[in-house]
Amino acid sequence: MSPNGKGAASLVYAQKRPGRDPIETIWALFCSLRFAVVLNLGLALAAMLGTVIPQMQPGLQNFDTELNGFLDQARARYGDFTGVLYWAGFFDLYNSLWFRMLVVLTVFGIVICTLNRWGPTMRLIRHPIVRVGDSFLSGLSEKAQFRAVPVTATTAEGALRSALRRGRYRVVSERSDDGNTLYLYADRDRWSKLVTFVSHAALVMLILSAAGIAQFGWREQSVYFYPGQPVDIGHGVNFSVRNDKFWIEYYPDGKAVKEYKDNLAVIEDGKQVLTKTIIVNDPLRYKGINYFLVSYQPVLYAKATDVGGQSLPLNRMGVSGPVTGTATTAGTLVNFNSTSDEGLPEDLLQLRLKDHTLTLDMKYYQDVERADNENPPVFVVGYLDKNFDKPVYNGFLPRTGPFQLPGFEQYKFSFQKDTAAVLEVAKDPGIEVIAFFFAIMTAGFTLSLYTTFTRCWAKITPHEERPGAVNVVLAGLAEKNKVTFERDFERLATRARDALAAAVSQAAPEETPLLAATGQAEA
Amino acid sequence: MGFEPSQVGFNEPTLTTLTWACYLLAFLFYTIHLLTKSAGTVRVAHRQMALAGAGMGAGGTVEVPGTASEGRRLGGTYSPILGRVASGLTLLAWASLTSAIGLRWVQGGHYPTVTLYEIATMIVWGTTTIYLVLFEGVLKTRAAGAFVVVIVFALQTYALLFIPADLKRTVQLVPALRSYWLMIHVSMAIISYSAFAAAAGAGLTFLAKHYSRGRLGAALPSEAAIEEFMFRAVTVGFPFMTLVLITGAIWAQEAWTKAWSWDPKEVWALVTWLSYAAYLHVRVQRGVRGVTMAWLSLIGFVIVLITYMGVNYLVQWFGLSSMHTYAVDNNGGAPPGIGVAGLGMVLFLVGLLGLALFSWLRIKFPTMRGSRK
Ligand code: HEM
Asked: Where are the alpha helices (DSSP H) in B68-159?
């Protein structure tokens, strides 16, 4: 309520008083402005803290080496406090228990406070106080007075009613107990009081559904889709997705990346049911599962042949199994899925011969430029058998032509470049539900900001001396947009004046109404 | 300003420099316009209308409140010419900036709201638009002109002088930004930031009224009226800020795979939203009026500035990771020249708060004024 409407506040709102009862005390606490402010500030401060303290990647806790790496970095910054900060969840602040508690308390606050307003608001709307006291009337910010208007109270009421109705007010009237005084109450945009409830309920539902729905989804963060190999993501998903081709489009300058594109095919029951080219801003959605393009990874298909051109079995190191048959017609996939000490994509290939094993340690130098028809920028260290301390080769692949190891020229290695797409696969159920509540909330906030619950009261009393004449007081109160309401009320008062004047001239038709506004400024 | 005489023509440097000069002049004219207002403030509270006509009889009177429009309230003694010149200059600045933005749009090939410089320019443009439409158009007041324009002028100075030249180039959109959501999401942000900037301008106007007992105070409209200008600007900004959060979440769900990931920019947008929600609750629910509201709107605007520019610096200073640094970092690598731009932001914030503090000191320590009286 505004300071001007203090009278109205005490009159119209029945305040709940905090009692001894603990529930009442808690209830009152949640309804207090101070508590709301503390909560709001706490939430805001906590959120801000998370933007000045480096946060762990989600799920980092489950990887010991990564976690220790993170903590070492933090120790450089926070020293001995690191342990405490970690324990108190400051490095995973938004998932910490205490942050969640703050959110829960806020939700409680909104719910309780809103419920607390429900009764008084409904009373305000459904049982407005019509017969108000003089001190209340004189306390209102907008007032108009008409004195000694020579009509009956009923006629004056009719005139006021018509003026109010033209201003979109609904009107209620009552007589004083002695029947001499007539009171009018009028209000407009009552429903805007209720919009507030709807929008706050939507806010609560938004938070609750976001928290609840998160429990039902899942997310696989870096899934490698190698060209031509369907990926079965698990989680009970009964279709697989194949990456057919990944490519990059550049701006005309040939350097800046314009778009990453990836052709995906959905395979269900052995049949290809859908193909789609996904880009960063347009994932594949199929049966509620989302396939997002997040990155890419250069890969090679490697082949080895002997002098006669006979192809030889080539394996990725660490991949066990039969020595033959691991190569597809395209060659053995080298996907560089480990990382070297220098942080480069690395992979190890082995050519297992009858009496020897040749091992190639391959590192991909992505920054080194090579033309499309040249061999990729891969640095190779070649070893013979288990002599890992004595490399037999140390250098980049030749720019063109097959690669041979010195002393083993009879074996030729050739490489075919390709690219794997790195996708994030996730199921986020109920995004639509969240969007729905968000939309309701926004619409509600906007409506309640642009509509104003407006009330007017009028009191019609017999004139003190002149029989057959009445005094009229019209006063109004808007909860916000006061300056606009001033203009609005002026229009209302002018209408009331005109309506009264018309009533007067009807009551005494022989006389000409002369109600020209001879306005004069009062200094 | 990286601008040489030989470059004069219908191009961005000329247009933005012209805009800058127009804001400076407009600020001067708005101020003079306020200060030259004749001293006697006549407040027309009520017009008494004699109902001397037949039928009402002698002694019948009607009292109808006077109109709220400021001119009549205050006796209409502002110099109309000065005010119109100030508005004209603001309009000229707006038109020239509109052309500059249009040129950039056409030449860059995409909606120019990616870099720090472009967004600053857009906020300058948006604040001017909201000021002209809402304050001068709908609310019919020039009272906040000087104060809104000073904010706008500071922001444009920041954009022109403090952002290093290599951050002013148009950039090519990285794949993540190539979406129609760029236009929707960033436009929402610009509208809401601009409305909050206008509200901060009204906040400054309020403080000037509240703390100045001199000529300036007398020339400004009533506190209640200024406060309502401020509130109206916030009511424009708040729904759009809500939309910023929604459209951001929808876009993130597509481009970043997750609607909400507690990215520093997201967090600060949320804090901005909460702080204006606090403003609205304090006002609507508790009926708080007056100087508290002016301070709240200024604090809110400082938070807006952190959300808009500060996050880029926070990320640097505190070694965080954020996906939201397109403004300074478009082709990988460290953002260049952040030191100078950071200094610019700090100066701007300090200037804004200093201005408010100065007006507060003037009342707390009246000797500062008394000696000149
Ligand atoms: C502790 C939590 C909250 C409580 C107790 C609360 C309570 C209220 C109440 C009682 C009103 C109605 C004012 C009236 O019409 O008389 C209101 C209005 C409003 N609330 Fe909240 N609210 C809370 C949280 C929020 C939040 C988090 C937001 C959004 C960020 C929000 C946005 C709004 C808006 C936009 C209005 C409309 C203002 C108007 O009527 O002009 N509320 N709130």
From this structure: 70-73, 80-108, 116-130, 145-157
Q: Are B325 and B119 in contact (CB under 8 A)?
A: no
Q: Phi and psi at residue A423, in whole multiples of 5°? A: -115, 155
Average pLDDT of span B82-98 = 89
- Whether the ipTM is more than 0.85: the answer is no
Q: What is the pLDDT of residue A514?
A: 40
Q: Looking at the partner chain, which of B42, B242, B267 has a beta carbon nearest the beta carbon of A521?
A: B42
Number of CB atoms found within 10 A of residue B7's CB: 12
* 8 Å CB contact between A477 and A138: no
Of the listed ranges A352-366, B222-236, B278-292, the least confidently predicted one is: B278-292
Residue B99 reports pLDDT greater than 60: yes
In chain A, which residue's Cα lies nearest the Cα of B254? A281
DSSP class of B327: T
Residue from A222, A260, A280 whose CB has the most chain B CBs within 10 Å, to mutate: A280
Residues of B in contact with A36 (CB under 8 A): 281
* Chain B partners within 8 Å of A210 (Cβ): 260
Q: In what order do the strands lie in the sheet with A182-188?
A: A170-175, A182-188, A454-462, A470-478, A142-149, B61-65, B46-50
Question: What's the whole-model pTM score?
Answer: 0.80
d(CA B59, CA A404): 118
What distance in Å separates the CA atoms of residue A447 and residue A461, rounded to the nearest whole number?
38
Please give the Cα distance from B67 to B62 (Å, whole number).
15
- Higher local confidence (pLDDT), A353 or B361: A353
Q: Which residue of A has its CA nearest to B73?
A: A521
Give tens-digit pLDDT for A73-110.
Answer: 777 777 777 777 777 777 888 888 888 888 888 888 88
Instruction: Give A-chain residues touching B173 at CB under 8 angstroms.
Output: 258
Ligand 1 lined by A501 (C-beta under 6 Å): no
Out of A30, A110, A206, A452, give the residue to mutate to test ligand 1, the one with the largest number of ligand atoms within 8 Å of its CB.
A110
Query: With 60 as the cut, is the pLDDT of residue A159 above it?
Result: yes
Helices A33-49 and A97-126, packing angle to 10 deg: 150
pLDDT in tens, A206-234: 988 888 887 888 888 888 888 888 888 88
